[in-house]
Design a protein that fits this description.
- With 550 residues, this protein is of the alpha+beta class.
- The protein folds into 4 domains: 1-26; 27-195, no CATH class; 282-411, 2-Layer Sandwich (Heat Shock Protein 90); 466-547, Beta-lactamase Inhibitory Protein, Chain:B, domain 1, CATH 3.30.1450.10.
- The protein has helices at residues 2-34, 38-56, 72-85, 90-103, 109-122, 126-146, 153-237, 244-271, 279-282, 288-297, 315-335, 371-382, 431-434, 438-459, 469-474, 481-486, and strands at residues 302-307, 341-347, 351-358, 386-391, 397-404, 466-467, 511-517, 527-535, 538-547.
- The strands form 2 sheets. Strands 1-2-3-5-4 form a 5-stranded mixed sheet, with helices on one face. It has a 4-stranded mixed sheet with strand order 6-7-8-9.
- Strand 4 and strand 5 form a beta hairpin.
- Its EC number is 2.7.13.3.
């Protein structure tokens, strides 16, 4: 009992998988139907039209005995059904096509080629592909033996194999090669996209680590120094020996230190993008008025010009506008002391323009490192805007930025050249991927070479005598035997089996000659053989019959 239970438990997962297989099949093909495009529908319709024209009506490659009456309609629908069946069951469609086409006398080479190509393209497993090809050969041999000409000797065997090789095997291998190459290209594209994503992730991680390191250094060093200044200034303000002016100056110094601490926290918040920046809430474009008033109290000759209709701005954009005005006033006081400064905030129809310009300085300006402008440029870029910095023709200096009204900030995932991180180069493709599909195309080439070589060899061998339709038509009953025989082809004896098989009994007392006609089609159901019978020095009979060799 335990053995039976164990067997049932082992088979239960497979039973569940078999039960879910129909649902999975329907779900997969429903998804494929959802991906149908007009191009694919047009391609399928074109293929169906080619099948009808080549195999049904007028049947350009089906032979002269192709059906051209009402029976062509069901044949056309049958071929169309087989062609569409390949979308879900390519192996069954190919086997059915081989049986229908080679088992009945109505042509269909084009449909077989298309079905064989589709089977090779759509069957993924090479084991299933090999089994399908073997079953196709068995079905082909059985169908050929039932209706198509069965030749004997080396020529007959070679015709049977080469027709299958050229019509079924060759398209099958070409389809398999195409599928393998497409799969390889898709895998390489996916791998390239994955490498790009990994490079961006690594670059972003490096940038974040560097920003956090800079922020930590600023907090530990500069923050510590500013805290000491604030503490000492607070202690100094309590000294009773200071006068009123000195005490006021100390308070200004302490206030500046505290403000610097707040500014430092804002800068650290920008560097640490994963932390919220509280400065963006207070330092906005509306606070530029307070900034200008503070500069005036410090002795800077500054004017503020506003224009346009104000509108709501994203936090990053509004804060970037404030920083532009602040950096412009700071640069003017440092590098152009005593010069007049003009701050402009203008709401254009499509963007916010913030500009700070100063006149030429009265004294020689001090050189600066320019780190403030570098940081300002990064801030404007993160807000999605553009920054312009440069000297004016009059000798002054100008800082101007164009900021968007929408939140179109540049993505941190886009690695710039300075932050580009080298990623280990992709390893060369493995032997299987490198040679993907080559085996199929090599086999296809071997099939073609073997077929060509075989027919070249057979062409050098003695074959049966063959007569043309003109010889048959020119001979008339009653013609002299010598005149008719003079038009017979020369050559060696036939290599085919007895050509008398399938013919009517010979006339009594007559001597008959049998020849193969050079007009042969595989749909005729046999080999066309002509017979000339002579008696008393005259042609007494000529007939055509179908020969079925053993």
């Amino acid at each position: 009992m335990s053995v039976v239970t164990s067997v049932v438990q082992r088979l239960r997962p497979e039973a569940v998988a078999l039960k879910a297989a129909p649902r999975e099949f329907l779900r997969t093909h429903a998804e494929r139907l959802g991906q149908v495009t007009a191009w694919r529908v047009g391609r399928e319709l074109l293929a169906l039209a080619l099948i009808v024209v080549l195999d049904v009506y007028p049947g350009f490659i089906a032979g002269p005995e192709q059906v051209h009456d009402w029976r062509a309609v069901p044949i056309a629908f049958g071929y169309a059904g087989l062609y569409l069946l390949r979308l879900g069951f390519p192996a069954i469609a190919m086997l059915g096509g081989v049986w229908v086409v080679f088992g009945y006398e109505h042509g269909g080479i084009a449909i077989v080629i298309m079905l064989a190509y589709a089977a090779g393209y759509r069957i993924v497993s090479w084991q299933r592909a090999l089994v399908t090809a073997a079953l196709g050969l068995a079905v082909y041999m059985l169908a050929w033996d039932m209706s198509a000409p069965t030749l004997s000797g080396p020529l007959g065997s070679w015709v049977i194999l080469t027709v299958y090789g050229m019509v079924v095997v060759l398209p099958f291998l070409v389809g398999r090669y195409t599928a393998q190459r497409n799969a390889l290209v898709a895998a390489l594209q996916e791998r390239e996209e994955r490498v790009v994503r990994e490079r961006r992730m690594v670059s972003r991680q490096v940038r974040l680590r560097e920003r956090n390191r800079i922020a930590q250094d600023m907090h530990d060093s500069l923050g510590h120094r500013l805290s000491l200044i604030s503490v000492h200034a607070g202690a100094l303000s309590l000294d009773s020996g200071l006068g009123e002016k000195q005490r006021e100056a100390v308070q200004v110094l302490r206030s500046a230190a505290l403000t610097a601490m707040e500014e430092l926290r804002g800068v650290i918040g920008v560097l640490r993008r994963d932390e919220p920046d509280e400065e963006q809430v207070r330092r906005t474009v509306d606070a530029i008025d307070e900034l200008v008033d503070g500069a005036r109290r410090a002795g800077v000759r500054v004017s503020l010009v506003r224009g346009g209709q104000p509108c709501p701005l994203p936090a990053k954009v509004s804060h970037a506008a404030y920083r532009i005005a602040q950096e412009g006033l700071t640069n003017a006081s440092k590098h152009a002391p005593g010069a007049s400064v003009q701050v402009t905030v203008k709401y254009e129809p499509d963007a916010l323009v913030v500009e700070v310009r100063n006149n030429p300085p009265r004294v020689k300006p001090r050189d600066g490192a320019g780190f403030g402008l570098i940081g300002l440029g990064e801030r404007v870029r993160l807000a999605g805007g553009m920054l312009h910095v440069g000297e004016l023709p009059s000798g002054g200096f100008r800082i101007a930025a164009v900021l968007p009204y929408e939140d179109t900030a540049a993505s941190d995932d886009e690695p710039s050249d300075e932050f580009e991180v080298p990623v280990e180069q992709a390893k060369p493709a493995t032997g299987i991927r490198k040679w993907a599909g080559v085996g199929s195309i090599v086999l296809a080439g071997v099939v073609v070479l073997v077929v060509v070589a075989g027919y070249v060899w057979l062409g050098s061998q003695p074959l049966t005598k063959v007569v043309t339709p003109e010889v048959y038509e020119r001979a008339s009953v009653g013609d002299a035997e010598a005149d008719v025989r003079a038009r017979f082809p020369g050559g060696s004896s036939p290599v085919l089996s007895d050509l008398r098989e399938g013919s009517e009994p010979e006339p009594a007392g007559a001597s008959c000659e049998y020849f193969v006609t050079d007009e042969q089609t595989y749909t005729s159901g046999g080999i066309k053989v002509v017979r000339f019978c002579f008696a008393d020095g005259k042609l007494v009979e000529k007939k055509i019959h179908l020969h079925h060799g053993a």
